[in-house]
Amino acid sequence: MSTTHDYTSPTWGHNITFITVSEDGKTASVVGHGLGVKVGDYLILANGPRATTRYRVVKLKRARPADCWRARIEFAPREEAPAC
């Protein structure tokens, strides 16, 4: 089961830094701090002052200390709610 992690408001020990981003913006390599992130999880990232974007973790490598990690992420649009 996947978990969603909110990284829209970076703080000490809970943040993401982009290392590389594909030209189309759909994949990226990031370095992050925060516990509990695993492959298949979703990361909610800020996209401008009021918008957010969702990415899925496709590859993860743990680092030291234990809350540090490197990841390959891919754009994962949210599913739209069915019309009533």
UniProtKB/TrEMBL annotation:
| Domain of life according to the entry | Bacteria
**What is the protein's name according to its record?**
Uncharacterized protein
